[in-house]
Amino acid sequence: MDLSPLHALDLSAPGSLLMVIGAPDSGKSTLARQIYQELCRQYSCIAYLDGDPGQSLLGPPTTLSLAINRRGDLAFPPRGRIWRRFLGATSPRGHMLPMLVGIHRLVSTAREHGAQIVVYDTCGFVSAHEGGLALKLAEMELLRPSMVIALQRETELEPLLQVARASSIRTVRLAPSPRVQPRPPEQRRKYRAQRFQEYFREAQRWVLDKNSLAIVASFPLQPAQLVSLEDAQGFVLALGVLQAIQGEQLTLLTPLRNLDRCRILRAGSLLLDLSTFQESRIAHGPQTMNRQPRQGSEQDVREEGNAD
Ligand SMILES: Nc1ncnc2c1ncn2[C@@H]1O[C@H](COP(=O)(O)OP(=O)(O)OP(=O)(O)O)[C@@H](O)[C@H]1O
Ligand SMILES: [Mg+2]
Q1: Distance (Å, whole) CA 67 – CA 37
Q2: How far is the CA of 266 from the centre of ligand 2 (A)?
Q3: Domain-by-domain residue ranges, the chain?
Q4: What is the CATH T-level fold of the domain 5-174, as seen in this structure?
Q5: CB distance 51 to ligand 1 below 6 Å
Q6: CATH domain 185-300 topology
Q7: Which residues surround ligand 2, an ion (CB under 5 A)?
Q8: Residue 9 near residue 174 (C-beta atoms within 8 A)
Q9: What pLDDT digit, counting tens, does each position of 117-131 carry?
């Protein structure tokens, strides 16, 4: 018997943006991938948007990635072009604006590059009291998806689905597959550390002049801070880890081989230990522009809204 929610889904006339939503461990990414591959059979240009900065599939943790397939190619991850935005954290909580801007920019990019349909695999941050539902609602209002596919266990997504229906957005409720394997926090941390380790395996040291870049940082830069090196469009060229800040000079490790297109250095809110590849959060409040941050190095970075 086919226990995948895909078989219960009518994908005729899908429109141009399908948003797969659900709590942590509801099978969103699996279903989104199946939908993507099914649509690749029927259409020539399909985009997959990985909107989970914690358990990211298409890029290193802390990023949001958009990939477009090559015509007729069902491979996953898609083998066509890829664009990334940097969230600088493993959860959208406390980073709602960069999340909204990043997702919107990626969906627009997909359309500019001819994607007929975007399949958006969202993160599991849907808790009402932490602002997850408000974020998803804002995304829905901004992006106007053609279809919202909700993997719902009880009634956790109803407030969102009510608004979607009232806005004439097609909504589909599906029950999560009984075969979904929940991932405990330790497994999630391990996954992120492995992804960071792979990502920085070939990293090399660069010394940059601060004045050669626009620096986007809401508090002072510090050693071990995760940063993003970006092009003039604000898309990630590569991530880096700061090693030293001396006067006008920044020393960092990055897998980037050529800095010619680098215009922006965007600071994240994490420190990355390059011996263990574990991340920790830089403790800071909202008004910390001129304050020295405290380092939360012993604190685990929770993916709020996820199972950890
Ligand atoms: N229909 C299914 N049949 C078998 N296994 C499944 C199915 N759906 C999900 N799984 C398994 O369950 C695990 C979690 O699924 P998935 O990553 O799709 O969930 P998710 O909701 O995206 O999780 P997260 O909250 O971390 O984003 C994976 O190991 C996946 O292979
Ligand atoms: Mg997922």
Answers
A1: 13
A2: 25
A3: 5-174, 185-300
A4: Rossmann fold (3.40.50)
A5: no
A6: Elongation Factor Tu (Ef-tu); domain 3 (2.40.30)
A7: 28-29
A8: yes
A9: 999 999 999 999 999
